[in-house]
């Protein structure tokens, strides 16, 4: 039972993240040391964006918008990006552009991994294994992480563990809550996924429900965009914050999939309902929230609150059913794990806590830094598999560039 030191690399979407997780056996207790570094792919293109802004290069601006504006607003409040430019570019451009994300990952991957090692006071030579996300995700982006992982593992003759992104979101809960034993239930809610899982054992999962169209995070992001919220962060937190000022019963949205007695989700219809409500109220998303009238601010807050209530009600209903299904298959289930970006929402946590209590279970929700995409979840999942002998042999030390 030697000490394990695992490096985890995550590049599946628009965050470049790395972490080192070390398990030490100290007086029969497993002690974990964690060092994590996360770099937003948005940041590395910031300089180019500023140059384009200076030169009024609109073509370049619209390409770089997605990465740079949210970061820019967050970084420096006195650096004014004219609101009208933001609105215009946002209308033309939204979502993650794989090619640009790939470039951003490639720019920062070495630095991110080095910083994670430095933080842990370790070098590549001290590692036991290298874990890396191999999917699901944007293939161009995944390759950057995989190439880095193979190069480190190859140079130091280290085993490699390929990690499933959604398994990592699930299992990181076991790092946070050491009592969490299999079997347990998990709800994974992010920008791209909406899953209900029965985790029976390590590597043994039953999918009880998924989304038939959009994930809840996507609905949050679009709502934020259509409400013209300042994209200082991603859409979810902006909607959550504005919803606190709103009346959640003021706009009557329909709860999706009520008539379906299954555990699946659908958020496309709710998105449309939100868009129509925004149009009906004649909200002008081109005017920033800060400079809008009190009346308009209230109208936006009411929509945000009403959307959030119904979006989460949908989660509550399906979770409740999934727990019943899960308990039928595995009566010894004690926990529901809620993870993924949307799990950092306080309203989501509070409402699901009620559901879980009614069913006699305990809620386990990792802290926001481990709910959104991160390297710790990958390193930890790698460590769990490695302990059971599930890993690949070291890759060749010098493989050709295009081997991955
Ligand atoms: O897990 P994640 O970082 O990346 C994916 O794998 O998608 O999740 C990102 C998603 C985004 O849609 C973001 O808007 C949402 O999680 N999110 C939130 C909150 N924080 C992040 N949604 C609602 N409320 C939040 N506080
Ligand atoms: Zn994720």
Question: What features would you describe in this structure?
Answer:
Strand 1 and strand 2 form a beta hairpin. The longest helix has 36 residues, at 294-329. The chain has 13 helices and ten strands. Helix 7 (216-226) crosses helix 8 (235-243) and helix 7 (216-226) packs parallel to helix 9. The protein has helices at 46-54, 58-75, 83-92, 98-119, 139-156, 165-176, 216-226, 235-243, 268-280, 294-329, 346-358, 368-371, 376-387, and strands at residues 4-10, 15-26, 29-40, 129-135, 160-164, 184-189, 194-201, 204-209, 335-339, 362-364. With 404 residues, it is α/β, with parallel strands linked by helices. The strands form two sheets. It has a five-stranded mixed β-sheet, sandwiched between helices. Residues 70-94 have low confidence and may be disordered. Bound molecules: 5'-O-[(R)-(carboxyoxy)(hydroxy)phosphoryl]adenosine (KG4) and zinc ion (ZN). 5'-O-[(R)-(carboxyoxy)(hydroxy)phosphoryl]adenosine binds at residues 13, 190-192, 217, 220-221, 234-237, 240, 340-342, 344-345, 372-373. It comes from Solanum bulbocastanum. Homodimer. It catalyses: L-threonylcarbamoyladenylate + adenosine(37) in tRNA = N(6)-L-threonylcarbamoyladenosine(37) in tRNA + AMP + H(+).
